[in-house]
Specification:
alpha+beta, Arc Repressor Mutant, subunit A, about 110 residues, WH_DNA-bd_sf, Metal_resp_DNA-bind_regulator, PadR family transcriptional regulator, Tscrpt_reg_PadR_N
Length: about 110
């Protein structure tokens, strides 16, 4: 069985969806990334990654209620699946392990 892997941008989007906890939709994800990471992201890039993460089984989506502010259109809301949570935990452990392996003197300039 091959393990699923995350690209850097996929990891960021997965984390932002988790942060938004039930209110994650494409425009909101973009706003959160821009605010937290000071990084510009296109709507097309977000939609592509959201579809890819959903295809991998790491996210699931459903339409929310129609709102007047959106002219009656419904938002597609995303949430992290159990499989997504597992890969987030594994990725975090891997990154922490790598950081802990860096000798302290490596950063003395």
């Amino acid at each position: 069985m091959s393990q699923k892997t995350l690209g850097e941008f996929e990891e960021v989007v997965l984390l932002i969806v988790a942060i938004l906890d039930g209110d994650a939709y494409s425009v909101g994800i973009i706003a959160e990334i821009e605010e937290r990471l000071e990084r510009s992201v296109s709507l097309g890039a977000i939609q592509t990654v959201l579809k890819r993460l959903e295809k991998k089984g790491l996210l699931k989506s459903a339409f929310g209620e129609a709102t007047n502010e959106r002219g009656g259109k419904r938002k597609r809301l995303y949430e992290v699946t159990a499989e997504g949570r597992k890969i987030m935990d594994r990725t975090r452990m891997q990154r922490n392990s790598l950081w802990e392996a860096v000798p302290r003197f490596s950063f003395n300039f």
